[in-house]
Amino acid sequence: MKILVTGIRGQLGYDVMKILKSRNIEALGVSSADMDITDRASVDRVMDGFGPDAVIHCAAWTAVDAAEDEEAACRSVNVDGTENIALACRRTGASMMYFSTDYVFGGEGTKPWKPGDETAPQSVYGRSKLDGENKVRELLPDRHFIIRLQWVYGINGKNFVRTMLRLSETHDRLTVVADQVGGPSYTPDIARLACDMILTDRYGTYHAANTGYCSWYDFSKAIFEEAGRRVEVVPVTSDQYPAKAKRPHNSRLDTSTLTENGFRQLPPWRDALHRFIEELKANGELK
Predict the structure, then answer these.
(1) Closest CA to 121 of 148, 160, 159, 158
(2) What pLDDT, in 10s, does the model give residues 155-184?
(3) Catalytic site residue 125?
């Protein structure tokens, strides 16, 4: 099987390529310099040149606040770019995997979101990812995977864990939002699931995250415990941290469709965090 992976400079795309290579699966990883997903001719040229059986589409606009001011640019990537890849997959007969987000939901309440729940995105970013989902469903009704994620972090990029560790070097007291709850998601675990799933025909919409839920406050405390940092963490509300884009209070995702379709649940979020901290230590980033 031949697999094309977009967004390899990002956290998820990097780990997807790493796992495909470890499994000796023929894969071509591309960044925006190799294939401009907003240019249909560029997409077609790469698709025709490589001839993949499947595309794992990791490239995305993820700057949530910037999207509020740059809606056209955000939609060009998340909607038009996704449509271009889906069109190329339809033309060539390839299947497609698209990564979405909990931001497609309204973000209130406490009940974990199921794949079939009503969507109600509250931000430009959320709307763009939902519109990308719908392009994939429309163009590839029988050959697509949609995986909704949240709170993603990994070795190849900026993320909340690295930000907290950096702040701990100059602060002994930090305030962190405690009224937003979700499931941290470690990219090697997500990537393993994606690489397992893409080899099957168990198409559909899934939710994926490391198991268990926590607030950003809980997550930050766990980060400092795992890293051996002595930092006082003070819980605050979202109102005390206003942002251009509305953040979901409820990012919990119900991942039960994974086991229902024969896939394993991801390890607990605290286990994943421990492995990431160990990875940072092994790379010399954390002492």
Answers:
(1) 148
(2) 999 999 999 999 999 999 999 999 999 999
(3) yes
